[in-house]
Amino acid sequence: MKLVTCGLPYANGKAHIGHLRTYVPADVYVKYMRMFGEEVIFVCGSDCHGTPIVVNAEKEGLKPRELVDIYHEHFNRVFKEIDIEFDYFGRTDEEYHHRRTQEIVKRLIDNGYIYPREIELAYCPNCDRFLPDRYVEGICPYCGATARGDECDQGCGRHLEPGEILEPRCKICGSRAVFRKQKHYFFKLTEFKDFLLDFLSNLRGTENALNYARQWVSMELKDWCITRNLEWGVKFPGEDLVVYVWVDAPIGYISFTERACESKNIDWKKIWVHGDAEIIHFIGLDIVYHHCIFWPAMLRGAKYALPSSVIASGMVKVDGKTFSKTRGYVVWLEEDYLKSGLNTDFLRYYLVNYTSHQKDLNFSWEVFGEKINNELIANLGNFLYRVTYFAWKNFREGEKAEIDAEVDEKALSAIKTAMDKIKNGLANWEFKVVSDAFMELSSFGNNYFQNAQPWDLVKKDVEEAKRVVASCLQIARAIVLLSYPVLPKTMKEFSKVFGMEIEKEKIDSAMAVSKFVISKPKIPFQKIPDEKIEELQHIMLERIKKAEEANKISVNEDKEEQKKEQEKQEEQKEQKDQKAREISYEEFQRLDLRIGKIVKAEKIKKSRKLMRLEIDIGDEIRQVVAGIAEEYSPEDVEGKLVPVLVNLKPAKLMGVESRGMILAADINGKPVLLHPDREVEPGSKIR
């Protein structure tokens, strides 16, 4: 048995194509697995708690549950419209979910993995309240970028614990916050390091997820604050606090499984307690940390079964630009796509076939139109219709045509090849490979049909014409079956031409040879007019234009405020500089400074300043990103010895992880590299 889950959509905004980067491939996977004869339970649901929902509800004058009702219904509806079919689509604000979350939290307490600690939290004197998560923003203590309370979303992407953020401000009133002490509860994540290293060495999934998680665990773990100062959420046992949303949200996978199993008369404990199922999580790349580190540690501590695989999709861009709702680089699923009247299978095909599942997907209306019209319709759609219509027209008796002839072994071999590619693609989570397989089979069929020229054969050798048509129909029927999980709406309808109930068919029946009974076919796909693509592109460009104008207005209105803020920052910088003038010898000893040798260097694309370096630091080759590309070429620095700060916390710059810092002099704002005055071994300590 397999349990397949998707990361829970947050119930505080509308669905966009970025969401579908996770949900469509997961649905495709589930449909294929069922056609291969696997028993699969597929669950998801709305993530209903957390600070953003409370903040958005306050802005719209709603109660949190009222806001959740709106967006839960929205996601449930649009998923069904695009043929994403969950066995259960739940919500985390329901009583059954609260009950399961509290049971797991109590288990963790009883097992000694949760403890209280007094910590300093951002507090707004003006609002007279502690500021959880996204009620506060400030400066990331690791990279210096503007950050929100729980994550450095504008800089290094690091998860931030309560109280870590620097220079906190209240997002409600804009006032400067202060730090005050309060008791909160922590999960002993540090006790699970050895377990996590072993777990991640055996976990299956996409390399983008596994590599990221392994790097984090191998470097450092911190105990994790799991309570928040909110009224909306799952109550922490015995306290006037709620459980952090990243504790209760993944527990939804368990509580939703319970509900799905009720309707199937299955004991959910077989999956989540006894471990008698393969648990597969489909997620976005931005929540790898939570699913590969926090979540398995919680499960282990509560003695629940562990996931088998974590599948992370690449990110989504729009017209080559970073996905951004505020800047207009977004395609809304309902108002842009569904209301356009376009076949939903077109979007499903584009999402799985554009690129590898792990790579970034770029959505462009122009490319979308070309890919659908010139690939899907001109190849697959054309083959299905021309073959079935030819068979029906030339061999029908009454309303249907019957063709009973020997199928060419070449046709069966091509089908078998496509089936093998699909199996291999699914095993490696490569949905482009899967969809390419049935597209290649369609190309083979088109060439076979064209080369055999049955329109001539039918005039001089009817039996041979039947053999050609039977072989092509065998290919066409196989394509309908093999493409159904990607193109369910279209293939469910077109399968009626063959008299199939496609939802009951198995993949192996693609090789089954029998007499064909063909009904009159309809054209499976309608070409997308150029005018429709231009219209949709215009809508997006207008959105971008309006967003840019709104940003300009906002900038002008805020100029005075920015000036005041700049003056405050300069004052704070001066205070920081004063503090930074003296440190203790013990503080200096914490710095792991070594001589490193640059063994490889290359400029980072789309950056004028940044260069990626591979540095031998004695016991390993460390990747470091340095802002030296304007002053040095890769050839200048390769082979050089440089001082390296090794134990600097990792950060991502232009999407490239940096695990250290080389030291350089600052001469008029330009870096000048430092070198030892004699040859020393890489890894030599600097004292």
Structural class: alpha+beta
**Separate helix tally:** 21
Number-wise, the strands total 30
Known CATH architecture of the largest domain: 3-Layer(aba) Sandwich
Please list the strands of the largest sheet in the order they lie side by side.
3-2-1-14-15-10
What is the percent of helical residues? 40-55%
State the fourth-level CATH superfamily of the largest domain.
HUPs
Amount of beta strand: 15-25%
CATH topology of the largest domain: Rossmann fold
| CATH class assignment of the largest domain | Alpha Beta
Largest sheet: 6 strands, parallel
Number of domain units = 4
Taken from the alpha-carbon principal axes, the silhouette is: globular
| Arithmetic mean pLDDT | 90
Tell me the span between the first and last alpha carbons.
58 Å
Cα Rg: 29 Å
Low-confidence stretches: 554-559
Domain TRNA-binding: 587-687
InterPro entries: Anticodon_Met, Met-tRNA-synth_bsu_C, Met-tRNA_ligase_1, Met-tRNA_synth, Methionyl/Leucyl_tRNA_Synth, MetRS_core, MetRS_Zn, NA-bd_OB-fold
Region (Disordered): 552-581
Family: Belongs to the class-I aminoacyl-tRNA synthetase family. MetG type 1 subfamily.
Provide a descriptive summary of the structure in words.
With 687 residues, the chain is α+β, with helices and mostly antiparallel strands. It folds into 4 domains: 2-102 and 241-313, Rossmann fold (3-Layer(aba) Sandwich); 103-193 and 208-228, Methionyl-trna Synthetase, domain 2, CATH 2.170.220.10; 371-519, Isoleucyl-tRNA Synthetase, Domain 1 (Orthogonal Bundle); 585-673, OB fold (Dihydrolipoamide Acetyltransferase, E2P) (Beta Barrel). The chain has 21 helices and 30 strands. The strands form 9 sheets. Strands 3-2-1-14-15-10 form a 6-stranded parallel sheet, with helices on both faces. Strands 24-23-22-25-28 form a 5-stranded antiparallel sheet. Strand 6 and strand 7 form a beta hairpin. The longest helix has 31 residues, at 365-395. It catalyses: tRNA(Met) + L-methionine + ATP = L-methionyl-tRNA(Met) + AMP + diphosphate.
